Amino acid sequence: MKKALITGITGQDGSYLAEFLLSMGYETHGLIRRSSTFNTGRIDHLYRDPHDPDARLFLHYGDLSDSGQITNLIYNIQPDEVYHLAAQSHVRVSFDMPESTGDISGLGTTRLLEAVRRSGIKTKVYQASSSEMFGDALPPQNEETHFRPRSPYAAAKVYAYWMTVNYREGYNMFACNGILFNHESPRRGETFVTRKITRAVANIVAGKQKKLYLGNLAARRDWGFAPEYVVCQWLILQQERPDDYAIGTGESHSVREFVEIAFKLVGVDLEWKGKGAEEKGVVRSLTSALSSTSALKTGDVLVEIDPRYFRPTEVDFLCADITKAQKKLNWAPRVTFHELVQIMVDSDMELAGLKSSGDGVRILRQKGIGWIGEIP
Ligand code: NDP
Ligand code: GDR
To answer: Any idea which UniProt keywords this protein has (predicted)?
Structure first.
């Protein structure tokens, strides 16, 4: 039985990856941080009492700032594969916490690579690199595009990227970078823009929230569906040679488009009024079903700009060129942008206590995305 260690197992990607690796028969270990309240909500459904002879998921306390414990875990577990996903992953927050972001998202990778090197164990390492590293490099971006990081987070990830390449070349380690473009899901953290939008849409329809406050509506991102991307993380480590891959959809959309589609899916047609920080999303019309079941009415202002969400330096336009991944990993995304929004809106409608369209689940069934039956 192969053994894997996932750092960041309690996060969006870590939880889907754990599900995937367990379904592939792996003994799966995860690094978790001690916190004063439970932080394992995304993986609780996978957990079994470790005394259970069939248990294959094991959690270990640790922190990326603690190299002793990381070294310890590598020695004790002797994993075949390490998926290094843990990071301070919020770009806006990295401007408030540049030093600790560098420590965790940058140096954390060095601590892990060094632990693997010193252990002498032939462990393959996946580094969660990011399209944010491209910064203001023109789209489409691929493995050859120069990095021009525009945030403390991106700068830390560029450092981690090069350390991964360095350990591969210097010590002959099987160490790879997946340069993943934005990927989302019902399990996405609530402060990332997609989830913030779908959650707000559902709460506004449910009468639990009045408005959605956002920052830069013009930013364009290449948004894909997270469960499909964790398969790539695994595929990257199954290749004959270690290498780096850009993973995305090859399509880019603005935050504004995401907002419009999400509202449209629940029956709200929005129009935009004003410019810049004064721009507002106003109800142009509602479906008759929605006008009879909610307190919403034409002319309501549902979206406003709050400059607090602007970043000192923004990444304007990301769009992936995935030629290499298509060719070498034989991978292509199946869930489209519109379907992604549908899946997330449906899930948040249900969380808000409302009936969803059911189309999100239908899409997943249709596409045969089976192993993530419990997607939300
Ligand atoms: P999340 O923010 O959902 O998860 C981050 C994980 O890192 C959590 O498990 C968190 O633990 C853990 N973590 C944070 N700080 C530490 C620390 N000091 N020690 C140990 N663990 C820590 O991120 P995603 O799942 O979305 O992303 C996974 C990785 O991929 C990240 O490195 C991210 O930067 C990168 N990435 C993500 C993309 C995306 O679009 N999602 C795109 C490209 C790269 P806790 O639950 O306790 O907070
Ligand atoms: P990003 O994701 O910074 O691309 O990093 P995020 O969803 O935070 O922002 C995407 C774009 O939306 C704009 N935006 C807002 N963002 C947030 N969070 N909140 C708002 O209210 C808001 N309004 C507009 C942002 O300015 C930005 O342009 C994510 C993370 O998962 C990283 O860890 C990962 O590396 C990259 O994706 C690829």
So the answer is: Lyase, NADP
